[in-house]
Amino acid sequence: xxxxxxxxxxxxxxxxxxxxxxxxxxxxxxxxxxxxxxxxxxxxxxxxxxxxxxxxxxxxxxxxxxxxxxxxxxxxxxxxxxxxxxxxxxxxxxxxxxxxxxxxxxxxxxxxxxxxxxxxxxxxxxxxxxxxxxxxxxxxxxxxxxxxxxxxxxxxxxxxxxxxxxxxxxxxxxxxxxxxxxxxxxxxxxxxxxxxxxxxxxxxxxxxxxxxxxxxxxxxxxxxxxxxxxxxxxxxxxxxxxxx
Length: 244
Fold this sequence. Notes:
The protein is 34% helix and 17% strand. It is built from eleven helices and nine strands.
């Protein structure tokens, strides 16, 4: 059985790297992007598609519309880690997993206890003033009296520390992620369609014999994988944690 073989590989590994996307957090009731109930399918209920409303130019031109959409469709302050997050934190605690690379911005990996988390697209938990650089937490954005949050020191707009469309990923994070993947003895990819670059391109550079894909639907990399599993990611990751 494929899962039994994978469990044996995990038990013998000491350099597992996990690469995850939006599907990792759907079991925490955070919608993904491209499924039938995802953000891109349900739309923004307005004149602009989500890709436009989450762009740098839209943020600059229509900050009120940006933050109305961002608050209602991108922030889930009450979300809790699910079985996948917890399992990954436990694998790290056991000394088997060396890094989590995530495309998510929800901070649930850290909340579950993971220490080394490379956030390719930033985090909603971090926010900063465009004027003076002062840092603010998520509560400041959620509870701000005005639609557009402004700095309590200089009055300039406070924006989320997330990568918007038309913006580049942090090159230092990207390089560190590439190094982790190159060194992995087991690369577990979960909850992502692997269609968004440059993040998805990181998987293409993996040359080992331990590529694991856990996703409900097919990905462009299925034919290259050593293991392809279509079961719910929380269930699979929980089963992969060695006991004792």
